[in-house]
């Protein structure tokens, strides 16, 4: 697989999709009326940080061509490499953006930008701000210093204080098309087409997540998990307990340190199983096979589907959904997985008895 560049995207034309979001920001840059604060909303990995970076480059480029940064001047090169003094990215530390990080950003904004006309500050995963940090940040939004543009990245506006949301211009981002992610993985990383299709579908519209999975051993883990899933109907109680105990010990795969994409953990495991059963549901209802996530395992899917009635597949999905909820609520992993495996096994067996 080709190596991924560590340089930041600094040109709008290099951002995958998001035409509406790009148009909103580009029009503001061209008009010279850039809001003091943006709220970029949407799932992770769809280009929110890239668009904010391209805006920073456009606003500070010394040789801008209409709205596109030149990519060659000193400002562009510094932003691309992460060394521009008037550009900063604030990310969660230990799972949260802390008041210390907000205070540091506020201190820098007391002075005029040093290297260009605008300072751009990005808060990635802004919904992780502690209450103290959010209240401190609100004061900056109420009295925004001149020459500073703030960009908050969040999945849902509802996860932020309403007073923060109301002071920002919201720009929605949409999940990327599967075809766009496949093309990127094939052309930019050199991944084989069939593997790229699987990752693109599992990523559910997030290019960043697809890239993180491509850089890990996710595909190998997926194959291991699905082999176990296909054995569930034949397990006795002791074997089911052993499988649950083994699965509850799953940890994240090897990904870049500090990445916001935790690949290979329990939620990924449950997500993979849920997609497997959704594929079964699709087959049982006569849906288009082109919509299958696990199309590379079509033979195994069809064989497994014959063991189930439609109602049992649907109820299996409910079991997996509850397991995901329980894990997110930090309930005992071993107990959650034990209940899930035994429930899936009992459903599969009842389906066989009915048929």
Could you describe the 3D structure shown?
The radius of gyration is 23 Å and the shape is elongated. The protein is an alpha/beta fold and 355 residues long. The protein has a five-stranded parallel β-sheet, sandwiched between helices. It contains 15 helices and five strands. It is 52% helix and 7% strand. It has helices spanning 19-31, 48-60, 74-81, 99-109, 131-142, 162-165, 178-189, 193-203, 207-214, 218-231, 237-248, 266-284, 298-305, 310-328, 333-354, and strands at residues 37-41, 87-90, 119-123, 148-154, 169-172. The two termini are 46 Å apart. Helix 8 (193-203) packs across helix 9, helix 10 (218-231) crosses helix 12 and helix 12 crosses helix 13. The protein has two domains: 12-172, 3-Layer(aba) Sandwich (Rossmann fold), CATH 3.40.50.300; 216-354, Zinc Finger, Delta Prime, domain 3 (Up-down Bundle).
Topology summary:
Layout lengths: L18 H13 L5 E5 L6 H13 L13 H8 L5 E4 L8 H11 L9 E5 L7 H12 L5 E7 L7 H4 L3 E4 L5 H12 L3 H11 L3 H8 L3 H14 L5 H12 L17 H19 L13 H8 L4 H19 L4 H22 L1
Parallel strand pairs: 1-4, 1-5, 2-3, 3-4
Shape: elongated
Q: CATH superfamily membership of the largest domain, which one?
A: P-loop containing nucleotide triphosphate hydrolases
Q: Output the number of helix runs.
A: 15
Give the helices and strands as they follow along the chain.
HEHHEHEHEHEHHHHHHHHH
Distance between the termini: 46 Å
Question: How would you describe this structure in keywords?
Answer:
355 residues, Zinc Finger, Delta Prime, domain 3, alpha/beta, elongated, Rossmann fold, 5 strands, 5-stranded parallel β-sheet
